[in-house]
Amino acid sequence: MKMFTYFFAFLLILIGGIHSASIKPKLNQAKLKNINCKNDNLDHWKKTGQADIPIIVKHPGQYYIQFEYAGTSKICGTLQVMLNKEVVIEEELKRTGSWEDFKNIKLKTPVVLTAGEHKLTLKGTKVPTNYFINLRKLILADGDETTDPIDYSFIKMGMDLDSPETQKAFTESMLKALELKADEPHVFAKHMWAAFPLMCDWLLQDNSNHKNWGYSVGYDSRGDFEIFLEQGRDTSFEQELVKAVAKELGQKADPKGSRGELLERYIKLCSERRAKRLQDFKSKHNNLIYAKHQLAVSIYLATETSGCPKGSELRQLNLNNNNNIIKDELLFDSKDGIVRDPELSFDAKKLLFAWRKTHKSSGTVGRMAPETGNYKIYEMDMATRNIRQLTDDKTYGADIEPCYLPNGDIIFSSVRCVQEVTCGWGDCSNLFVMDKDGNYARRLGFDQTQTAFPHLLNDGRIVYTRRDYNDRGQTFAHSLFVMNADGTSQTEYYGNNTTEPTSLQHTRPIPGTTKSMSIAGGYHTTQGGKLAIINPSKGRQKYEGIEFINWDHTKKRTGGDGYGREGDQYTYPYPLSEKSLLISYSPIGGYLFNKNGIYRRDTSSTMRYKLYHMTTDGKREMLAADPIHSCMQAIPLTPRKAPTARATSVDYTKDKGVMYVQNVYFGKGTEGVKQGNIKKIRINELHYKPITIGAGGWSPPRDQVGVGKKYAGYGWHSVLPTGVGSASFDAKTILGEVDVHEDGSAMFEVPARTPIYLQLIDDKNHVVQSMRSWATLMPNEKFSCVGCHEDKNATPLQAGKVTMAMHREPQKIKSFHHVSGKPFSFAKNVQPILNKHCTSCHAPGKKAESFDLSDTIVKDAKFGNSSTHRKFYQSYLTLVDAKWTTNKVPREAKGQKRIDEGRPNKWVDYYTRLLTVESTPPYYAGSTKSGLIKHLRKGHKKVKISEDELAIISAWIDLNVPFIGDYDEMHNWTEEEVSKYNTKLAMRTKQEEIERKNIDRFIEAGQPQ
Q1: Cα(338)–Cα(297) distance, rounded to whole angstroms?
Q2: Per-residue pLDDT, 765
Q3: What pairs with residue 748 in β-bridges?
Q4: Beta pairing class for 399-404 and 111-113
């Protein structure tokens, strides 16, 4: 094998953001120094070596590392890239063929560089042989494949957003690029957007001489800059710009002058228009506060542990500074961390925010959150700028999204509930409340996964986004809920039986109205989407009560994860009126990544939102921008009237609440059911998963998935599964049943602070309808509903009529046979019935062994998240039609055998965990349609099964066929997995004890309101 004489043939370092995919003589060339390698002639990179490369950046932004390398080992190893001693990228490099076969590669993950000096370090890890790679030609590029020879260092960076100097520099840069005959307009445009975002946005608003959107990909996706840079053209481009702005100002346009004069005139007119557009807004608001950060994660509401580039800050905008120029100054520096979620007190004297003291990601998939470095909540005194910490590391994980309440308390989201996402990975947050000093913190939401962005409506209630997928598909269940400030009356606000929009985010009320503004977006995507006004009085499902601003949803190109993620993008609206708002916005949006304008998740870290004042007719003015971070979460630094604090009946000395149903026969859920057929209401409790271990996977037939079809999504994970692929998301307990009166009414006690869901039961112990959501009552709460899946806008039936339930004391829950009060388990509750009646024939070696209902233990595989990591009884696998399959998931023991998905079948029909999110008719699925129940009820051989036993088997089917009741039941875990589970469960117990003590102190203090 021929050995190369030099380790690096040459190194190209691009100073000031020059873009290149080829060697250019004009660029600086340098050999690497301080390389620990085999010998001094640098022939190969030894696996213990590293290269330290000093770089100087003039233009801050996002850069990609490109290089050529050669390597002969089967897998060369992992390249570790460090920026200023911090690991930012790890990427596996594969063999190229031989030491002479060089391969060009661009690392998938970009690095974010601020202006100034940096040290880039390259190091080989996990190297299987003595040598790593031969490396030559390393380039830092901004991602644009280009051969443009222009040196764009003439574009001045770091200037004010809007000042005479900035305006002059913009005009000079435009003319200079035209003079230099720049032939890569998208590269030029990217620099201009970084240096002069306001002027670029003006150009985008006013230029009618452009191509269609998607003409190209990137910062010049309409060709605005391309048309400007066209050589030999006249000045009509500049004349039309002047005319557009003059028309809005009601002035006569002057089309005379040179190109430079016209550009200067255009910018001057834009400044006049800007002052006019902002005049009313600035007359009411002197200052704004906003957060500078970049939380680009794969799920829009799972940001508790996500990282961010350095430089996150809270900043304050002085809107009425001298010369009508907005002054942008630092309010709070997160140092090496991330700061987010600013929220102002009603008198504008205090500011809440969440701050973590590291900017690095810290995932919690199947493990504990770090003891420190989590988001905690702080409060700033706006007069002194002094801050105090309200939550601390005594509680688990992150505390985020604080909001002041009218009584002085603070509601916030926290992962101290110690739950991992049911259908995926990592900790999730629920809603908690504490007093103004951080005392008496206690849980308000007992929700399956994330609840996010709690904010006050004008009537004093709290609106928030809740993921809600009990026995239905998780993809589309991201609707809006409301509750009172004390946690009572938790109910739907908008869209809980709606496939579209996929999610509603960042909802805030519109002052003086019953409407709100929200962002309609996707699910597996970063925060953002389309701007919408929600009016629940017009309806609460689908598009009944939604009005989109500057978007026609009937022409949308994508749904599901991609819903609303096309074209321009909005996030974090702050409505000032029905016509005016503050908004973080990207006019280019999805066109940065795709000619069709579709926002791609794999490039989500590229887009930066700018902060705007906007009117709903489309007029906008940029207020803040940053090339590294998005400018988001703006709030006016202005006093506002607090909603009236609602009186509370919550009493933490009690442990029960009361539910009242006026008529179970009213509503879509029981449409067509004959009066008198419903005999009972069954009350079930949900138990949430503490950690990620294994998974149950299931994908329904694709032709049965979609709006109006049986299944809400394709699946497929359910972590720490209760059974095989399509079984219930959560473990459950049947608390018991209560009677339904002849008029359809019922009133009964339920345990407080407990997630429950209701099922309507007929005289055969079959479920007529299932809630497929959950309710949580606070201690001493009285909660009522009209009927079953009724329209939330429906008024009570025959107001003033006294129902039969009203004549009686609230019922106490009656036990459901011997299985009530403990988690329902197939192994413990159903298998004994099968052993008693069935296994004499349906077992190995018996005459009906082909339909095996024995308790023979079958161990599933133990790899990754494609297998359940459980032991099952063969009877369970037989009834749910689960067999063995070959694993097809890459990187997780591909080709090995694992237990098959399982699915509804002629013997056992059930809702499945991916059922449609829309309301279903009565008797849609479950025991009433299961052949097994019909078979046993009809009589099979000499089997005499009791009604009690039939009821238990039916209940198992109607609970969505869980195999286990406790999450550590019948597991097939390693010692390490057992330890992880026990550790996480112990942490949950610890947090519950902390909360119990907080509630005891709250009671001792007289439960202050």
Answers
A1: 14
A2: 95
A3: 659, 811
A4: unpaired
